[in-house]
Design the sequence.
């Protein structure tokens, strides 16, 4: 069965992830005294996630870079003190033994090919890129949390179903035992029912082990220790038209991040091309103490114009590299946008299929329940044999488990569709 195979693959994949938590577990938050909803589990997972914390620090890092880039166009001021001693006779201003100097130094870049402004624009784009990447990480975290949340509910529902089947088989075995005493049932009918009971018990143990792994995964994501109660308010799984999600995909955080990465690359190209332009700088000094021939000079101003004539191809090479990186970023943006739309189409098709499958299996479950009820009545009237009743019971068990898997598979795909379109929770 597709849904159960997918659940099993997820359980196998996360088994190792849960094991890595034991290496250096952070302090666990207090365990709530009420069953948790998906929203609450997601909020806990966001506070717990190291990935989101790292991306948050990357945003702070780029804020620091922005401050640095702004500082490059602002004037600079400093106070300098020098104390020079030399082997001189001291007889003139040129042969002084002690030459102390104290002064204020001011500098202001006038023109550098607008390199600083391009750098500031690039840092702002990089900050927006990091923020979008963090939002995308939150969407992917939602997929992980919803998968674990509904996987745990699915396993618990399956365990409850198997408990009900087990109780029905025990009643069936007791009834067959009484009929055997009256000579109305054969001994092999009891053994057949007992064999089916043992198979259900084995399935229950398998579901129980899967429930433990699913619970450990949710504990790993939320940081809770000893999570027990979760509850799903069963909201209606309503979605918009496919075209709506395709439009939302254009604004998905990773698409926005890719677009900002392209902006970063374009600004880096402008910075590289600025090496072909002359630079103009203004410097000024105000002296509070001077000795020697310049003792009466209180201030000076220096204007420097640097016109690059030949740099050995350094500027050309840097421009070629930056231009290539900008083209790569543009292509990556186009690919990311197309990939987002394809993923939306895939997720939408899978969700619609899951809804149809869930409805069909719900009808199949209803028919299986009615069939089992009729088979039991016919058996009591000696119209069918025990094998027919057990087959009906087995069909009912499979129908219930398939319906449970389809129900929670549709819920997982619903949140996958929302995350794929960048909607989040």
Sequence:
């Amino acid at each position: 069965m597709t849904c159960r195979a997918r659940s099993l693959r997820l359980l196998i994949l996360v088994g190792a992830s849960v094991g890595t938590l034991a290496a250096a577990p952070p302090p666990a938050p207090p365990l709530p005294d009420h069953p948790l909803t998906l929203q609450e589990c997601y909020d806990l997972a966001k506070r717990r996630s190291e990935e989101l914390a790292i991306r948050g620090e990357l945003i702070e890092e780029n804020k620091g870079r922005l401050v640095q880039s702004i500082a490059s166009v602002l004037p600079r001021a400093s106070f300098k003190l020098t104390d020079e001693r030399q082997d001189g006779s001291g007889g003139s201003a040129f042969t002084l033994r002690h030459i102390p100097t104290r002064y204020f130094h001011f500098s202001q870049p006038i023109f550098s090919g607008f390199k600083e402004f391009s750098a500031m624009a690039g840092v702002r784009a990089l900050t927006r890129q990091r923020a979008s990447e963090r939002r995308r990480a939150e969407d992917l975290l939602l997929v992980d949390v919803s998968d674990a949340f509904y996987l745990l509910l699915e396993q618990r529902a399956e365990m409850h179903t198997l408990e009900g089947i087990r109780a029905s088989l025990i009643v069936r075995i007791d009834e067959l035992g009484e009929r055997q005493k009256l000579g109305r049932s054969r001994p092999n009918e009891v053994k057949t029912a007992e064999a089916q009971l043992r198979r259900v018990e084995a399935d229950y143990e398998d579901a129980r082990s899967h429930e433990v792994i699913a619970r450990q995964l949710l504990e790993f994501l939320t940081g809770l220790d000893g999570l027990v109660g979760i509850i799903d308010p069963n909201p209606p799984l309503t979605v918009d038209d496919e075209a709506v999600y395709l439009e939302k995909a254009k604004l998905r955080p990773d698409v926005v991040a890719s677009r900002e990465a392209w902006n970063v690359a374009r600004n880096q190209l402008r910075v590289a091309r600025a090496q072909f332009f002359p630079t103009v700088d203004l410097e000024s000094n105000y002296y509070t103490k001077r000795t020697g021939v310049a003792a009466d000079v209180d201030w000076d101003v220096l204007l420097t114009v640097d016109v690059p004539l030949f740099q050995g191809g350094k500027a050309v090479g840097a421009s070629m590299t930056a231009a290539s990186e900008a083209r790569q970023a543009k292509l990556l943006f186009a690919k990311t946008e197309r990939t987002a739309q394809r993923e939306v189409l895939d997720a939408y098709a899978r969700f619609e299929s899951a809804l149809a499958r869930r409805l069909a299996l719900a009808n199949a479950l209803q028919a299986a329940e009615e069939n089992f009820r009729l088979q039991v009545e016919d058996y009591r009237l000696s119209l069918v044999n025990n094998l027919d009743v057990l087959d009906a019971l087995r069909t009912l068990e499979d129908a219930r488990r398939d319906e449970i898997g389809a129900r929670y598979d549709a819920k997982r795909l619903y949140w996958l569709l929302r995350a794929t379109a960048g909607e989040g929770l």
Confidence is low (pLDDT under 50) at residues 15-25.
